[in-house]
Amino acid sequence: MLQEFKDFIAKGNVMDMAVGIIIGAAFTAIVKSMVDDLINPIIGLFTGGVDFVNKYAVLAGEVAAGTSLEAAREAGASVFAYGAFIMAVINFLIIAWVVFMLVRYVNKAKEAAAKEEEVAAEEAPAGPSELDLLTEIRDALKK
User: Where are the alpha helices (DSSP H) in the chain?
Assistant: First the structure.
C-alpha cells in the first residue's frame, strides 16, 4: 500500500494539481482584494455610500441600527447576511470569468502551435528516405 501511495504521489497529475491549488489560493487573494478595494467602492458610489458587505437582516436578537455585520455576529444576533452572500457570488463570477478567459487564451495558443507544426511538417522538404540512403551507401561501398 505504501508503494502504491508513492506511485500516486510521483505521478505528474498530482504535482500539477498541487501547483494549481497553490496558484488558486494566491489568485483568490488577488480577486478578494479587487472586489474589496475596487468593486465595492464603485458599488457603494451607486448605492449612496452604503457598505454592501454589511447588508444584513436581523432574524433574532437585538442589534442597534448601523452596526456592522461582524459586530452583530459578535453580539450573538442571528443574522441573514445577504450582502456577504452577494459579494461571494460576485467574487465567484469574477474568478469564473478570469478562468474562462485564461482557458480561452491557452486553447488559442495551443491551436496556433498546432497550426505552426502542421505548416512546418507540410513545408519540410522530403529528403531521401532511410532506404535510399542505405542503398547509396551500399552502392558507394561496392565501387
Answer: 2-10, 12-34, 40-46, 69-74, 82-123, 130-142
